[in-house]
């Protein structure tokens, strides 16, 4: 499969583009390319459902308040691949790491947070594949970094600091 991807120019570019995402390696990129080529019209929500990472409510008779679980419908190999990739992405990918920490701090079990990271990683990879732009982290931080480089260091005098303190109370 890797040989096929490397022979086709567009697939090779998409393959390299997907690997700009921290946590997405060669196998995960190939699995995503397979999904994108198999289901070219699928949006990110449908892609999540095709892999089986979508939440599903469980109700039966008088048992109405059972916890949600992932549906596990769809491609088990792709689901496993994205879950394993999320283990690395949860550490290296800044937006996903912050997302995981937020879920764990809110009291979610670690495995539930990890599945949520896998789902978000799939949606992130789908967006990068569709837009054909490489991963750059959070757009706000990138835009802020660009702005600070253009403007440079701005000196803040005591009067501005005083106003800052007055409005922060």
Detail the topology: elements first, then pairings.
Blueprint: H1 2-7, H2 9-18, H3 26-38, H4 44-51, E1 55-56, E2 69-70, H5 76-92, H6 94-105, H7 110-131, H8 139-151, H9 158-167
Antiparallel strand pairs: 1-2
Helix pairs in contact: 2-3, 3-5, 4-7, 5-6, 5-7, 6-7
Overview features:
single chain, 169 residues, mainly alpha, two-stranded antiparallel sheet, globular
> Which assembly state applies to the chains in this document?
single chain
How many distinct helices? 9
The profile of the biggest β sheet is: 2 strands, antiparallel
Number of domains: 1
Gross morphology is: globular
Description:
By secondary structure, the protein is mainly α. The chain has one domain. The chain has nine helices and two strands. It has a two-stranded antiparallel ribbon with strand order 1-2. The longest helix has 22 residues, at 110-131. It starts with a helix and ends with a helix.
């Amino acid at each position: 499969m890797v040989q096929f991807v490397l022979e086709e120019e567009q697939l090779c570019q998409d393959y390299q583009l997907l690997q700009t995402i921290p946590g997405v390696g060669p196998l995960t990129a190939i699995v995503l390319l397979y999904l994108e080529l198999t289901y070219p019209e699928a949006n990110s929500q449908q892609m999540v459902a095709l892999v089986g990472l979508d939440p599903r409510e469980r109700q039966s008779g008088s048992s109405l308040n059972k916890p949600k679980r992932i549906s596990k419908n769809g491609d088990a190999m792709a689901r496993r691949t994205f879950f394993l990739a999320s283990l690395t992405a949860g550490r290296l990918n800044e937006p996903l790491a912050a997302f995981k920490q937020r879920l764990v701090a809110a009291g979610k079990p670690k495995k539930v947070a990890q599945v949520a990271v896998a789902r978000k990683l799939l949606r992130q990879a789908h967006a990068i594949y569709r837009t054909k732009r490489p991963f750059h982290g959070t757009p706000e931080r990138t835009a802020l970094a660009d702005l600070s480089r253009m403007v440079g260091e701005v000196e803040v005098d005591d009067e501005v600091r005083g106003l800052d303190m007055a409005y922060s109370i």
